[in-house]
Structures are given as structure tokens and as C-alpha cells.
Amino acid sequence: MNKYQIIHDDLVKDILAGKYHEKMLPSDYALMNRYHVARETARKAIAMLVDEGYAMRIKGKGTFVIQHNRYSFPISHVESYRELANRLHLKEHTQLVAIQDAEVPATFDSKAETVVLATEITRVRYLDDEPIIIDRDYVLKAVIPEILALPKSLSLFELFEQQLGLTISHATKTITIEALSIQDKQLMKLPEAGVVVVVRSETFLSDGRTLSYTESRHRADKFKSVEFARRH
Amino acid sequence: MNKYQIIHDDLVKDILAGKYHEKMLPSDYALMNRYHVARETARKAIAMLVDEGYAMRIKGKGTFVIQHNRYSFPISHVESYRELANRLHLKEHTQLVAIQDAEVPATFDSKAETVVLATEITRVRYLDDEPIIIDRDYVLKAVIPEILALPKSLSLFELFEQQLGLTISHATKTITIEALSIQDKQLMKLPEAGVVVVVRSETFLSDGRTLSYTESRHRADKFKSVEFARRH
DNA sequence: CTTATCAACTTGTCTATACATTTCTTTAAA
DNA sequence: TTTAAAGAAATGTATAGACAAGTTGATAAG
């Protein structure tokens, strides 16, 4: 592993363990001595912390930990449902509703003139035995011609990355509020009319190709998104 | 201005102008020659682009522009309503509903044992003459003892930064869906029952103090959030 | 014609150094 | 006692160079 990555990971571990609660993080020079690295290497590690929202640097003063309430539902990085449930220690299970070939609906900002072929996977996500989320993935056949089996212990992302050697780079997400569809009511066992929170995303590979489109329909009363934002 | 900042701004301008549409951005060495700077300086400029989601670097290949649809409602950085409306060229105006002293409600994750005194500012935001957002700011009296006048041409953020010399560092945001309150119906002229999208945020200064809490209540049918997320 | 190798170009990591700027404390002068 | 200057410590910016590693295309060998 890289030197700055090691330093970064050490610091994150200590931050999460509360070692720097309300205190200053080691200065550039302190890290230089502790790890016997050049200053730029130490700075790179700290720059990552700042980037992730763990820390804040103030010129002339030092580097300080930013206290987070990281218990809620963060959506500001690419993370799958399963990874998320795992991290928050929620009891989760998934019900496969359907898996079939389909075209990507025009709902996904498609400037595409031609139809895009994909494998459509519809799943219902349960948290604490309540149906909370309907996930519908469109995995492009241009990238993954066929999905042989849905893994029990891996998320789709992890499957693609670990088994198929693909590298996921980034995603764009939009959040809107829409009226409940008939299928929403059925799958989430909601009797009355109402709304769902729809998170639509497009996931990209490192080579720029689109890997998949996903539509996540969340029960509105269970939805909470948390994010961290920096000024400028 | 810094060298890497200049290079960065030049590149952003060119990207937005479409000069690198589907093409490779200048390599490290190309920027070195063009601007007569060291490689690390050029890399810093590009690192900023990557950080902002403008570009993607692939080892051995080059740096590539990420195509964005940046027309929607981005919430992934600290930006005020007015700055936003301006950027998207929307016709906007604001109606001041009330400004008074108040305590910060417990809704804002307050682990605070004592009451926190603040100036409460309630405003209704109109886009294209429709009331879309109710903003309620709680500006802490510990930081700003008194708000003398609400500026017509500046946002609250800009006022604090430019007039009072404060530096805003970051914010945390949560998005939830809640039932319409009576005041929601009145101020947004909504006759029926329904839901609003509530964005609650806490804004921090560079010295770590909390500057303000804000509750933004958005008309659900007009709400759209767009964000960019990177994997790992 | 096919294959293997090499060279050129790219990004990634790391070092060592220099000077600027901000903050805070200590010391010395008035 | 108050004020001013000096110094130490921290982050910010910038340079020059080195080597590693991935990608691509040209070239040479078979």
C-alpha cells in the first residue's frame, strides 16, 4: 500500500476511535518524523481526510477533526444498499421480484436516439422485515451481456468489481418526489395513495462507459439522506 | 491568485465552453510547458477538477472530461438560494415573513443541554412567481448578536462573508419527507394535504463554531436534487 | 502476416528544499 | 504596565527531480 494511504488509514482509525476528540491532529512535521516521509506525503494523507470531511485545516493554527453525526443515511458517495445496510448494522434482506431483458426507459435522461438494451433486475429491500425500497437496475448488455446468477453475499457492485474486474468510477444521482405507482403499493404493502422518494442514478466505469441505470423507490416516511458539503 | 488556481479556472472555463468535448485534457507535461510551472503545480490544478467531478484521470491514458448534466438542482455543496437561482438564471424573489428572536428547536440534532439563542428569519422563496421554498434560518446570537438589516442584493452567506469577515467552512444536510404543516399550506398556497421535502442544515465557520441552522421546506413536486458521487 | 519488443507518453508516488503567510507566545523595550 | 518586536510553529505554495507503472503505437524479428 502507498505511504500516504497508510498514514491516512491510521488517522481515520484514530479519529473514529475518538483519539482526537476536540484536539488537534498531528502537524505535517509531526507526521514526517513519525512515519519518516517527506512533507508532501504527509500532506497528501491529510488532504484526503479534508476531502472526506474528516478534518479541517486552518493556516497558522493546525488541523482539526470535524465532528460528524455519521449515523444516518448518507448518499454522497457511490454505495450499494447492501454495503450501506452492513455499515449501519441493519437487519436486511432482499427479495428478487423479476430479472428479464428490457430496454432502458426514457426516464433516464437518455439523449440516446437508439434503444439501449439491458438486463432489468427488480428487487425489494427489507430493513427490519419491512419493505422499504424497490430497486430496479438496468445493467447494460453492452458491458455485461448476461447476468448468470445474482450473488447472495455480494452486492451487484462488488460482483462487477471483484468477479469481472470492472472498475466503477463515479455516479450521478437525482432525487425527486413522485406519486406512488400501483406496483409501489403492492410491493411495499402500502394501502393508501401517497408519494415515494425516487433516486435515479447512472453508474460509470473508469473507461467512461455507462455500466447501469438504477431507480430506487424509497418509502417516503423511511427516507433520510445525509450529506456533507464544503464551501467553495 | 495562485498558479494552480489560474490553471484550474482556465480549464474549467474551457470545459464549460465545450472545448474538450469528448477529448483528452492537456497532460501534466503539456500544462508544464504551457504555463511554465512545475509538474506538481499542474497536477494540483487537475486534482481540483477531479475533485469537483469535472474530470477523470486514467493511469497511462490521460485525463478526460466527465460529461455532466448540470442544469438541475445541485445540493452537494454549500450554496445559498440566491446564488443558486442566479446560476440557473431563474426569476426569483423573496418575501420576508418574520424576523424575531427565538430558541433553536430541538429538531436540529441538538445534543445541546442548554437552550441556544438565535435570530429566526422566515422567508418564502418564489421561482417564476410561484412560492416554492420556505426558508427558516436560525442565526446564532453567539456568533451574530444582532442582524441589523437584510441585504437586498446579497445572500445571508455573502453578507456574513463579505461584510463581517466570517469564513464559512462546511455544512451538513439532511433531507427528509414530512407532512405539510398548516403554515406550509398558507405560505405556499397549497389547498390539499400532502408532503414537503425538508432540507435541514447546520453551517459551520472555519473556526469550528456553528453559524446557523436552516430548515428549507420545498414543494415536493418542484423539488429535484442532483449530485455527483465518486466511488471510494 | 503475426508476434514480440521497444520507445514514447501518460499518470502515480515520493523526496528534499525553499520561501510565504498566519497565528500565537515569548521577550525586550518604552 | 503596556506595547512592540522577535521567534517558533503551523499551513500554503512552488520547484526540480527521480522512479514506477499502465497504455499505445511503431518497429523489428520470426
From TrEMBL, chains A, B:
InterPro entries: Bact_HTH_transcr_reg, Chorismate_lyase_/UTRA_dom_sf, TreR, Tscrpt_reg_HTH_GntR, UTRA, WH-like_DNA-bd_sf, WH_DNA-bd_sf. Residues 1-68 form the HTH gntR-type domain. Pfam families: GntR, UTRA. One of its GO terms (molecular function) is DNA binding. SMART domains: HTH_GNTR, UTRA. One of its GO terms (biological process) is negative regulation of DNA-templated transcription. Keywords: DNA-binding, Transcription, Transcription regulation. Gene3D superfamilies: Chorismate lyase-like, Winged helix-like DNA-binding domain superfamily/Winged helix DNA-binding domain. This is Trehalose operon repressor. The gene is treR.
